[in-house]
Amino acid sequence: MHVRMPALLLAARQHAETAVIARLLTEEYGVIAAYVAGGRGRRLRPVVIPGNRVDLQLAGRAQGQLPFATLELLHSRGALMTQPLPAAGIGWACALTATALPERQPYPALYAALGGLLDAIAHAPSARDWAGALLGYETLLLRDLGYGGRPQQEGADLAATLAALDRLAPLLHRYLLADRRGDVMAARQRLRGLLGRIV
User: Fold this and answer.
1) How many helices (H) and strands (E) does the chain have?
2) pLDDT tens, 75-133?
3) How far apart (Å, rounded) are the C-alpha atoms in residues 25 and 27?
4) How far apart (Å, rounded) are the C-alpha atoms in residues 168 and 138?
5) What is the pTM of this model?
6) How many independent structural domains does the chain possess?
7) Do 55 and 96 share a structural domain?
8) How far apart are CA 91 and CA 86, in angstroms?
9) pLDDT tens readout for residues 17-66
10) DSSP state of 62
């Protein structure tokens, strides 16, 4: 496998001394895990931040082994990681996607929706303006993975959006995150607590 494509970086876990295992979402191949040499080094550390849009080059290895990846930054979300609400929103959306989606199965609508959500978080003046996009993304994720998910009302106020987010929480936990390592829902609970403070 030798391919080059844009991707959204979902997660990066340290591997050995300076490398990382990155999980990336692509339009054509879905979630891909890859080995990034030097991912913890000075040059690549700002690139391997969840939410960043990157130019991904994959070089395949033997069957059953992780491919090597080379990453070039296309759009950084690093500046948002110093702000609690945007950082929590990006962290939750990326962690949910990395955990819930199976590898190597394309979900082009989810790729576009996650990109739109990350752009909304980056450009909206307040979380009131992107909370609805988060609700829409969670609903789409449930629906595309076969667990229902009714479309939500457009233009709802923040209190109604938060109530809808609360109703989705058990579905996400039961269907998408059950029996997963780590407590991914803790990231959502942290985000929900921060959103609740602005109502």
Assistant:
1) 5, 5
2) 999 999 999 999 999 999 999 999 999 999 999 999 999 999 999 999 998 999 999 99
3) 7
4) 8
5) 0.91
6) 2
7) no
8) 8
9) 889 999 999 999 999 999 999 888 889 999 999 999 999 999 986 667 88
10) S
